[in-house]
Specification:
It is built from four helices and ten strands; from the N terminus they run E-H-E-H-E-H-E-H-E-E-E-E-E-E. The chain is of the alpha/beta class. It has a domain at 9-134: Rossmann fold (3-Layer(aba) Sandwich), CATH 3.40.50.980. A six-stranded mixed β-sheet has the order 2-1-3-4-5-6. Strand 3 (58-62), helix 3 (63-70) and strand 4 form a beta-alpha-beta unit.
Length: 188
């Protein structure tokens, strides 16, 4: 994802009680030997000055962080900073390319998953505006939000979404993808 080395410094402004801040940010830094700049709370106005002052080359993010930064007034030289790579989740496609250009980011890795989900996606190849790929067996089907139910055809089968349309992601539960960890084995 990051292409993180011991020469890097990770900018972490996400809480360390959250998986993205702890495992993706601090975890990647610890495994690679990179140093970390840990900020207690995100600040859009302090972001670039701190990145420059502390020589941060990597950023761990959630999508709204990128949107907040994009909504600040652009300054000449926003792209003159040491950041080169970032990894996180939830960056909106309408923010992605402008963010990379404005802040001079050459690499974005994105992932998508849920703590209790059996499917995850990862974009580790720096492909713009995508959460990436999965090796899990999945289907994206039409979902009726108003009635809170999956849309089915006359035969009772789920209706696949058309390309570019939103839907409900279904992941096949197998022996390899069962979520374990609840205290009631019958509910697992």
């Amino acid at each position: 994802g990051f292409k993180c080395t011991e020469q890097d410094r990770m900018y972490i402004c996400l809480p360390l009680y959250h998986g993205t801040g702890l495992m993706v940010g601090a975890g990647a830094a610890m495994v690679s030997g990179a140093s970390m700049f840990i900020r207690r709370k995100f600040s859009a106005s302090n972001f670039l000055p701190e990145v420059r002052e502390h020589g941060c080359t990597l950023l761990v993010y959630i999508g709204e962080l990128c949107r907040y930064l994009s909504n600040t007034e652009a300054q000449a030289g926003d792209d003159k900073n040491p950041l080169r790579s970032m990894m996180g989740n939830g960056m909106r496609p309408d923010v992605w390319l402008g963010f990379k250009k404005r802040f001079g980011i050459s690499r974005v890795a994105e992932f998508y998953g849920a703590s209790e989900g059996n499917v995850a996606f990862a974009n580790l190849m720096n492909r713009d505006c995508t959460v990436g790929m999965t090796s899990a067996e999945v289907a994206l089907v039409e979902y009726d939000v108003d009635n809170d139910e999956i849309v089915r055809d006359a035969a009772g089968r789920c209706v696949p979404v058309k390309a570019g349309e939103p839907g409900l992601l279904l992941g096949k539960i197998t022996e390899d993808t069962v979520f374990e960890g609840y205290t009631d084995p019958e509910a697992t």
